[in-house]
Amino acid sequence: MSTLTLTRSSVAGARLPRDVHPVAWWLWAIGLATAASLTTNPLVLLLIIGVASMVVMARRSDQPWGQSFRLYVYLGIAIVVLRVLFRLVFAGSYPGNVVLDLPQIPLPDWVLGITLLGPVTQESLLAGLYDGLRLAAIVICIGAANALANPKRLLRSVPPALYEVGTALVVAVTVLPQFADSVRRVRAAQALRGGETGRVRRLRRFVVPVMEDALERSLALAAGMDTRGYGRAGGLTPAQRRTTGTLMLAGLCGVCVGVYATLDLTAPRYLALPMLGLGVVVAVAGLMSAGRRVERTRYRPDRWRWPELAIVASGVAVGVVGWWVNGHQLLIAYPDLSGAPQISLVALVGVLVGAVAAAAAPPPRQVLA
Amino acid sequence: MIELRGISVAYDHHPVLSDVDLTIEEGELMLVSGPTGVGKSTLLGVVTGLVPRFSGGTLRGDLLLDGTSILRTPPRDRAHVVGYVGQDPAAGFVTDTVEEELAYGMEQLGLAPDAMRRRVEETLDLLGIAELRHRDLRTLSGGQQQRVAIGSVLTTHPRLLVLDEPTSALDPTAAEDVLATLTRLVHDLGVSVLVAEHRLERVVPFADRMCLLTGDARVQVGTPAELLAHSPVVPPIVELGRAAGWSPLPLTVREARRSARALDLAPPVQEVLPDAPEALRARGLTVTHGRTVAVRELDLTLGAGRVTALMGRNGCGKSSLLWALQGTGKRAHGVVASCGSDPARLEPAQRRNVVGLLPQSSADLLYLETVDEECAAGGDGTRAILDRLVPGIPGDQHPRDLSEGQRLALALALVLVARPHVVLLDEPTRGLDYAAKRALAGMLRALADDGHAVLVATHDVEFTAQAADEVVVMSEGEVVSAGPVRRVVAESPAFAPQVMKVLGAPWLRADEVVAALGARTA
Fold first, then answer.
1. In the beta sheet, which residues pair with residue B4?
2. Looking at the domain assignment, is residue B359 inside a domain?
3. How many domains is chain B partitioned into structurally?
4. Which residues in chain A touch residue B51, judged by CB atoms under 8 angstroms apart?
5. I need a labelling partner for A171 at 20 to 30 A (CA). Which of A194, B77, B226, B263 fits?
6. Are A329 and A344 within 8 A, CB to CB?
7. Which residues of B touch A299 (CB under 8 A)?
8. Does B418 reside within a domain?
9. What ipTM does the predicted assembly reach?
10. Subunit contact A224:B109, Cβ cutoff 8 A
11. Which family is it part of (chain B) (predicted)?
C-alpha cells in the first residue's frame, strides 16, 4: 500500500513545474525532423510544423532562448519563398500544365543548361513548394528543440570524460554574442575620431580594436576559470594519465584506419569493419577510464523521469511512422504533382502522436524577471 | 596563513616587485594600495598563481601556505584555498545563471551534491542575492554582478579572498554594499581578504592592515593610520587631518567629525556662477531599448565654459543619454540642438565638430602601433593638444603600454582635435589614481576655460567635488536633482564628498580647508 502511494506521488512530482532534460527535447525534435525528411506531402509537413509549434507554445520557458523560435519560423518561410522564386526565375522546361507563360530570356552559350524565366508549370511550382516546405519543417523542428531546451545545458550534459570539451563549447557559444557587442561598440567609437578613410585602412581601424578586445576577454575568462579550479588534475598519477591517453589515441587511430578501409574498396577487408569496431571499443574504454577518475560533480543535474521517456517515445513514434509511410505508402509520402495531395490515417495519427509530448512534459519553471 | 618571502617579479628585466615580504593573517582585511602601474595587480597575481602563468615575466622568491610552498602550484589547484575576483567580474563568468555560477567552483572541486545545494542556498542568503538566483548573469547590474562574483568564489569556502578593484565600476551605494559584505565575511566567517583599491576613501575604514606599494618595487606594511601619515596617495579625509595636524589621523568620517568640532574656520567664499551662454539644449529627450525606457522625457541645458557632472546608480541611463546627445544613439523622441544644428542629423565627420564623446572603453578609439602614428592619423594639432593635456608622452610607445591616465588623454586628444563645442565623457575616472584624477580635473577645467561645455558621467563623488561646477543626478532615466555642485551634493548624503561629511556644507574639498587654515595662521 505504502509503496503504491509513494509511486503515485513520484508520478505526480515529475509533473511539477521544472526544466525537462534537454536531451529528451532534442531526441523528440530529431524524431519529428526524421519524419519530415522522409516525405514531401505538404499536408503531413504542415501537420509536423503545427505539432512542433503547438508544443513550443505550450512548454517553452520565458528565458531568452525560448524566444528564439520565431527566428526559425521566419527562416522557414524565407526558405519556402526562395524555393518557389527559384522555380519561377529558372523555370527551365519542366513538363506539365503551364500556369504562367513568361517570355524566356536568351542567355549566351557558355551558361549552357540554365534558362531564365520561360513558361512556368504547375508541377514545377508545386515541386518547389513541397521541397521548400520539407526543408522548412526540418529547420522548424530544430528551432523547436532550441526553444524548448537550453542549448547550453545540452552541451553540459556530456559524459564526464568529455566535460572539458563541453565547457569549451559552452564558452564558444557564449562568446559569440559578446563578439557582436564588441563589434558594435568599436564601430560607434571609431566614428568619434578622425583618421584614414581608405577601404583597407578603415578595415584595420575596425579589426584591430575588436581583436584586441576579444583577446583580452578570452584571457580574463581563462584566468577566471583557472582560478576556480577548471581542469584540476585531481588525484591522477602520471601513469594513470598515460594509460588513458594511450587508450584514447589508439582508439582514434583504429577508427581512422577503419573508416578509410571501409571507404577504400581496394584496402584489405580485415582492416575495414573489424578495425573500425576495435577502434570504437578501445576509444570507449579510454573514455570510461578517463570518466571514472574524474573528481568533478554536477550541481542539480537534470533528472531523467517518466515525462522525459514519454517525450522521447512520442518523437521516436513520429519518426518510425514517417519511415513506415515512406516504405509502404509511397503515394502518400511523395504525392503526385498534378493533383491534390492526400493523407492516410496512419500518417495523420502518426504525426499527431508528437503532440503527446506537450501533455506529458511538466510546465516550465517560472523565472522572476 | 599565507606568506610571501622575498618575492621578486620582473617583466623584461624591468622589476615590478623586488624582495617583497608580506604575511596575511587569518581573518584580516589587507588593503593593497599605491599609484597606478606600481604592481598592485601583480602582487595579487602572485598570490592567486596567475603571475607569471598568465602575464609572463619572471618570478623569484617563495610563497608559503601554512608553511608549505605553493609557488609551483597552478591556480586551479589553489582554488580551494584562494578565491579570486578580477577587475571586471562579468569577464570571468563561465555559466549563464546566478545559481549555476555559484555552483561552478564546487563542481570543479568535486563536492558532494547535497553539500553543493546547501552552500548555494547559504551563499545566496549571505550576499542577499536570493531573488536573483535564476537570473541571466548578463542582465544584472554592476553591483549585483560583483556580489555574484564574490559569491561564486565563496561557495568553495576559500580561506583567502583576493579582489582586484571590487568597487571601481560601482556607484557609491553599491560600493558600500559590497564592502559591507566583505566586512561581514571577515568578521563572521574569519575569511582573510586581500583587496587592491584606488579609492581609499571607500576601503580604508574597513582595512585592518595596509600594504603600500611605493613605486620603487618595494612595499611598506602597517596599519592604515601609520602608513597614511606619509603615503603619496591619501583619501581626502587624511589630507584634511594632515592639514589640521590631527593626531592620531582620523580614518573614518566619525572620528574626523569628533576632531573637527574644535576647528573654527571662516566658511569658504561661495563663488557665484556667472550665466553661461547655452552650448547644448535637449528637450523631452527619450531613449528606449525595446520595451525598457532608458531616458524618459529629459530636459537638459549645458552652458559653454561649464563642467557638469552626471551621476546616478549603475544602469540609470547615463550612457544612453550621452550617446543620444552625441547623435549616434537613436532617440525615440525629443529635440537636441547644439549651435543651431541637431547632431543626430549630421554626418559623422560634421558631428565631431559639434559634439565630441569619449566612450567608456576609450581604448576602442585606438588602433595604431605608436602614439605618433595615432596623432598623425588624428590630424594636425593632435600632438599639441595631447602635450597640453599630459606633457611628455614618448611618441614611439604603443598606446596599450601607456598608463590608464595617459591612454585616456590620448583618446581625449583625438576627440578634441575636431574642436567640438560640447565634450561628453563616459566614466573617465575608472582605474585612475588620485594624481591622474587631479590631472583629469585640470584637463576638464582647461577645456571649460576654452569655452567648451563639458559633461562628465561619473560615480566618483570626490572627483565631482574636485572637477565639476554643476551636478545632474539621474534615476530611471529622469533628472532627480540638478544645480550647482555645492547645493546638490549637500542635499543627497550618498553623493556628499568626505570633507562635506566631516565639516558639513558648504565645505567641498580639502584644499579649501587648507586655504582657510592658512588664512587663519597668517
1. B22, B63
2. yes
3. 2
4. none
5. B77
6. yes
7. 99-100, 103-104, 106-107, 113, 116-117, 120
8. yes
9. 0.85
10. no
11. Belongs to the ABC transporter superfamily.
